[in-house]
Inverse folding.
C-alpha cells in the first residue's frame, strides 16, 4: 500500500537500531541512547502550505534526525510509520 | 442529505475496519491497531480561507490518514461523519 | 427586532430538533445524537476583517453545521440566537 | 468629560434593561436573560491598528451586541463605560 | 532624568486621584472606583515596530485610559512611572 | 572576551545601584525600589530577524529600562550579562 | 558521520568546561556558573524557512551563547550534539 503525504509532509520509519549498530553506522555510549534517526520513505509535493511556499528538500532514502514528539504514528501493513512536516525534520545524516 | 463543506474543509467517514481487513487492504498486527484511515465523501471549494489561498487537493473517494483528534464529528442520517480542514489530512493512501 | 452582524459574522438559530425529525430531514440513531444543525437568519457584509479580505459565502435560510462551542449565544425577543464567524461554520446541508 | 477612543476602539454603555423592557424593545423570557446589548457613545478613528487597516463601521447611537467578557470597564463621571475593539462587537440591533 | 521610550511605547504616570476629584474632573460614586486614568509624560518615535508601521497618536500631556495590568512600572527619581505600548492605551479623555 | 549579539539582540549589564545613588542619578524612595536600569555593552547588527526588518536603535553606553523577566542571563569572565531583544528594551534614560 | 542541518538550523556541541577554564578563556566565579557556551559544528543552508527568508550568519567553529532550554539534544557517534534554530543562538563570543 502506497502512502502519499500532502503538502510539506514526509513519511518516515524509525531505523532498526540493533541492525544499524552492527553496521557501525550509529554508535552511542549505551543502549538507552537511541538517536531519533529515521529513514524517509515518502515525501509530499511541497507547494503552498498554510499560505506559505514550501520547497521539499528531503528525498526518499534520506536518513534524518527528527524533533522529539513530532508527527503522527500510524500502523500500515503491519509497519509503524510516522507522518510529519518537513519542518519537524532537524537534519539529514550521512555516513 | 447532502453535506457541502465550506472553504478548505472536507467531509470524511471512517473506513469500516472489519470489512477492510477482509479485503486485505489495511493489515495491522492486531485488532487494536486501527489505522486512522477514512474516506473522503465531500470536499470544499477551497479559495481564500482565513486570508490564505487554499487549493483543494483531495477528491471524493480518496482514502486518507487524518491527524488524531482532528475535526468535528456529526451524526447525519444515522451516520457519523467528520468535518475537518484539508490541512488536518496527513496523507492519501493507495492500494 | 433586526440583528445585523458585523464583518464575517453570521446569526444562526438552532433548528428545532423534534420538528425536524418529524419532517424526516435529520435522522439520528437516538435522541441524544442531536446534530449541531442551525439555520442562518442573518449574514454580515464580509469585507476586510482583522486585516483579511473575507467573502460571505452563506445566505439567509442556509442550514449549516457549526463547530461545537463556537459563537456567542444571546436571547433577543425571547429567542436564543448564536452569533459566530463564518469561519466557525463547517458545512452547509441540503436535502 | 469627553472620552475619545484610539484606533479601532469604541466606547459603549450597557443599556438600562428595566427601562428598555418597558418600551417593549428587548423582550426576554425572564429577568435573568439580560442580553448583552449596549449603546455606542464614542468611536475611534480607525486607521492602521496593529499593522492592519481598520475601517470604523459603527457610529454613535448604534445599539450593539458585544462578545461576553470583552473590553475594559471604567467609571467616568459616575457612569460605567466599556472600551473595546470594534472587532469585539458582534452585531448591530435595530428596531 | 529624562526617559525616552522606544518605538511605539509611551511613558505615563497615574493621575493623583484625590487632587483630581477636588477639581471636579473625575467623579466616581465612591473612593474605590479609581479610574485607570494617567497622564502621558513621554512618547516614543513610532516607526516600524515588530515589523509593523506604527504612528504615534498620543502627545505629552494627554490624559488617557489604559488597559488594566498593562505596562511595566518603574520607579525613577522617586516617582512611579509606567511604560507601555500605545496599543495598550484605550482612549484619551478631555474635559 | 567579546560578546557579539546576533540580529536584533543587545547585551546589557545591570547598573550597580549603590554607586549610582551616590552620584544622585537614580533616586528611589527606599533601597528595595531598584529600577531595572542597565547599560548597553553590545548591540546586534539588526537586519531581517524572524522575517521582519529590524533597525538597531540602541548604542553601546545607553542606559536603558528593560522589561521585567526579559532576556537570558549569562556569566562571562566573572560578570553577569543579559542578552535580550531590542524589543524588550522599553526606554532609554538620560541625565 | 556527517550531520547536515536543514534550513535555519545549526548543530552545536557544548564546550568542555574544564578544559576551557584551564585555557583562561571562560572564567566564572564558581564551578556552578557554567556559561551556556557551545561550538558550532554544522550550519544549515538558510533559505526560505516557514515562509520567511533566512540568511545563515553563523559558521562552523563559532563559539556561541544559546538560549536556555533551546534545541534538541541527540547522541551521534557517542557524542551529544544539539540541533537548534539560528534564532535560538543569542550571541557569538570571541577571545
Amino acid at each position: 500500500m502506497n502512502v502519499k503525504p500532502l503538502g510539506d509532509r514526509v513519511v518516515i520509519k524509525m531505523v532498526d537500531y540493533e541492525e544499524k549498530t552492527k553496521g557501525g553506522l550509529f554508535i552511542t555510549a549505551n543502549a538507552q541512547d537511541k538517536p531519533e534517526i529515521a529513514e524517509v520513505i515518502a515525501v509530499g509535493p511541497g507547494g503552498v502550505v498554510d499560505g506559505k511556499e514550501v520547497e521539499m528538500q528531503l528525498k526518499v532514502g534520506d536518513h534524518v534526525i527528527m524533533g522529539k514528539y513530532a508527527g503522527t504514528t500510524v500502523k500500515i501493513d503491519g509497519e509503524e510509520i510516522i507522518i510529519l512536516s518537513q519542518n519537524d525534520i532537524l537534519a539529514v545524516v550521512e555516513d
